[in-house]
Amino acid sequence: MKRILFFAIAIAVCGTLGAEAQQDLDVPHLFNDKVTGAFEKQGPSTLAFLKVTPSARIAAMGDAYTSVAEGMDAIYLNPAGITSVRRLGYSFGYAQWLVDSKFYSGAVALNVGWNAMLGISVVNHQPPEIERTTILEPNGTGEMLDVGDYALGVIFARQLTDKLSAAAKFSFVQSNLGPEKLGGTSLSLYTLLHTGYRSLRIGMGINNLGNEMKIHSDPAEFPVVFNLGTSMEIVGELGDPMSLTASFEGAYFTDRDQRYNLGGELWLKNIVALRAGYKFDYDAESWTVGAGLKGTFSGRNIRLDIAYSNFGKYFDAPIRLSFSGSL
Question: Cβ distance 220 to 186 under 8 Å?
Fold first, then answer.
């Protein structure tokens, strides 16, 4: 128990120190009197695509997944959960996103021994083609601009005890803005704790602690996000003929007000999953739904998931598909 408490405090302090290392970024201690004051709002950030969840399973649960964190889906929101993969895991995703843009994602993780996993994740956000215009040619020059966002993550996760797992992710990010490019590196830290009370779990992560970037002479910041959530099976247990998981978490940002996510996942016969979620205090997003199928074939676990997210009357609802498996 002392080891668990020490590590929980250590990761919070490391996250705070890392954030304070960013120029002009003031992140107070995470153990503040009010959790809602853990992050001070600083103004706009760039690289907003990093806040979009590529996994259909996570999206269907309203992003309330930091404490659920199981299997290869965990690599996108809380990689501490990939320690549940026995040997090798993989994941691929596609999202039909807003304004005709698209997300492509992929990840692989390998058990390297000593209760540790090494993984790589790739996320690509591809906007629709944009034609270059000038003052003399406002209708277009015929030249298409090179635009799009890319993030490559290198993940190390380890199960420290039978109840506590931790992970770190180093990300290399680049955004192509026509003739200009914006890029940088960031560090994210995560933990997943099984409390020992029934199936109650607590997960947390501090994302995108990165160096300051510049667009011409203007400073640009990574979108720092702190997630803290809890989940538990309120009906049955995972693997039973029927189980229902409930999850709730808060998301605290440096570029906007705090937000809350609520999600649920119902498994039937441990084969079919029905999911739903709700996102509170978001500008456009609200409820989410989704479904999944999983099975075991010759010792290989395979899963297919789909998610639908409501964005109100202003945007077409994005559809996300994910295919994952493990050995």
Answer: no
User: What are the sequence ranges of the domains in the chain?
Assistant: 2-326
Q: What is the DSSP string of 261-322?
A: EEEEEEEETTTEEEEEEEEET-SS--EEEEEEEEEEETTEEEEEEEEEE--TTTSPPPEEEE
Amino acid at 238: L
Q: What angle do CA 167, 82, 85 make, to 5 degrees?
A: 140
Query: Per residue, what are the HEC states of 31-88?
Result: CCCCHHHCCCCCCCCCCHHHHCCCCHHHHHCCCCCCCCCCHHHHHHCCHHHHHHCCCE
What predicted TM-score, i.e. pTM, was given to this entire model?
0.84
The confidence score (pLDDT) of residue 40 equals 52
| Average pLDDT, 10 consecutive residues per value, the chain (327 residues) | 41 40 38 40 72 95 97 96 95 94 97 96 93 82 86 98 97 88 93 97 96 78 94 95 97 90 97 98 94 91 96 90 95
292/278 Cα distance (integer angstroms): 18
pLDDT the model gives residue 27: 36
Task: Say which residue the tokens 């955004």 belong to.
Answer: 175
What class has domain 2-326? Answer: mainly beta
C-alpha span between 245 and 229 (Å, rounded): 13
CB 176 within 8 A of CB 148: yes
